[in-house]
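Usage

Read records sequentially. Each one opens with the input sequence:
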Amino acid sequence: MSALMAPKLETVVDFVRTIAQRELVSRFARIKQQIKLDGSILTEADTAMQHALQEAFARAWPQILFLGEEMPADQQQQLLENSQAALWVVDPLDGTSNFSVGIPYYSVSVALIQNGELQLAVVYDPERDEAFYAQQGQGAYLNGQRLNLAAMAKIEKITIGIVDFKRLATALANKLVQQPPYKSQRSFGSVALDWCWIAAGRGDVYVHGKQNLWDYAAGQLILEEAGGVSATLAGEAVYNRSLVPRSAVLAINRGLFERWFAFLQVK
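and closes with the structure output:
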């Protein structure tokens, strides 16, 4: 992609913020829900947000393909297999369950993949008007303020763990309940925001047993650019340009990550 056609991060943030305020905030807690085939919730807001983003991005960057959560799986797979093309990966409403019942913790997640690598990321929280964003090699930011976990490098104890229990193996979930390695535990309901809150130091560690590419792609780049550490429960990189769901283990520094990762290994 030429420099002239490459998206400017500030422009992507503006698009996401403007469209989310129009399509999501106006519908918050005032919308009917449907159940998709995989058991997850779908609302009018999901589809309206995805459609609006796809239209706006196509006008601004027609050379970049668009993969949205609400597309059919076979179409998503075809887009991923086009390895030569730049690709937007979008979750138009991450945290639909929260959104549909009025819990103000949901987000829009947008990542740009080019040459197989995560290049640009935006995660926007409409309720707090918080935009988390990053570009490869250029740091991570929250509303213009640099996210830098280096200041937390000396933290050695886990105060807050963000844990999604329902997607963990029973033995691991039981271990976390019976032998909690943290002082306090939280579960919020938007994967993309969870990654960003760790990047912002609002939690020390995180674990989730099953999340999709559109859930974690933007969050992973933001966390990495902030200086955080991540891997799957098997010790692999979370992002692998695949539709196969991935587990995720995060921490604000390497020392905490190693202790947290070791704790999570259950035979």
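Summary fields computed downstream for this record:
- The two ends are 46 Å apart (CA to CA).
- The mean pLDDT is 92.
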